[in-house]
Amino acid sequence: MHKHPSQALAAFAADLSFEQIPEPVIRRAEDLMLDWLGSVLAARSARPVRSIQRFAEMMGPAEGPSEVLISRGTTSPVFAALVNAAASHYVEQDDVHNGSVFHPAAVVLAPALATAQALGASGAQLLTAVVAGYEVGIRVGEFLGRSHYRTFHTTATAGTLAAAAAVGRLLGLSPDQMLHAFGSAGTQSAGVWEFLRDAADSKQLHCAHAAASGLMSAYLAQDGFTGAARVLEGAQGLGAGMSTDSDPARLTDGLGTRWALAETSFKFHASCRHTHPAADALLQVMSQNGLKAGDVQRVVTHVHQGAIDVLGRVVVPATVHQGKFSMGTVLGLIAVHGRAGLTEFDRDFLAPEVAAFRDKVMMELDREVDAAYPARWIGKVSVTTTDGRTLSGRVDEPKGDPGNTLSRAEIEDKMKRLTHYGEAATAQEAQALCQRIWSLAGEPRVGRLLG
How many CA atoms lie within 13 A of 20 on its CB side? Predict the structure, then answer.
């Protein structure tokens, strides 16, 4: 019988085996996991994350099989996934897949780790589940299309299905059960961008909800709970309700031959990914021409519409987190400090010299950049100097993209810096964690990562 797209995607996730996955994809999954751990641990003291942690402590068991990384406590899988996912996205350093405009790690790794620890799964089983979650979530994000992202946070919406796929693979769901898990996950998809206007905390809730809802959906499916068979492409499914350009063909694009996980990018700057291409292009102009912030009179960033939709809401940021969605603030930090890292944001996102530069920056829609997006995120800037010159910068692959990726040494360095920032582990513990993840595929049982 010919499978419809949701059914084919569910069958792929249910039947995926470790042996089917090319070794470079497994290695990249390990890279992404270590990168994710740094982001989680960096958010150890973040107020919104602590709020969700306190909720989990009130509602969940005081002890359990699954690890809450930021507290080193344990609880049930669903509450561990809830807290770890909330922490994943806070410092804006977690990974991103360009074509789907989706942050997979936050909503895949948190529920997958929690479930693997509860089941006593092996490292190979965990990595297989991670790949399944990435492959499903990325394709769902691509299916939902550009129109979806104008209002909806794809990580929150596609994330429910990504989480269900990862957990369902660990539970050993059949293809039919996986399809039911997708139905339950999809009907719980939620998360809109309005929070940016108010500098609200919703982004952490988006990831927490997606991870926990996807996990619940998979466990319910294992128990016989049913969900819509065509929750994605059906007449009243996600595509119909949340998109005007959904494309069901994207759900099955290259299943088993195209490994979308390997297309995922690492984040170099500690800000919204939409700012990164322009930040890299500005760095290029300033370094090549020996410019300082005071030498710049005006910066025009030539961007895609998605950047305007998300970043255009933030004019003068009220919080550090909102500052990460301000193109002017990010470029101000780049101009003043040469980097837009966590320390620079915390200390200087409203500093006078940064604010002065912020007011010199504007965004303009660029036809070439917009046509290439989301498959490619091109960075183009035009810089007018105080002495009357107009200088241009262009970056076709921002730092961290697959063609300009981070080495394992750079990933380790980033993870250690994030861990140090969050005061979440000693240098020795961070180094041990690196070695643990690099050898994860051979571990017979996924235990606690931090003592």
Answer: 16
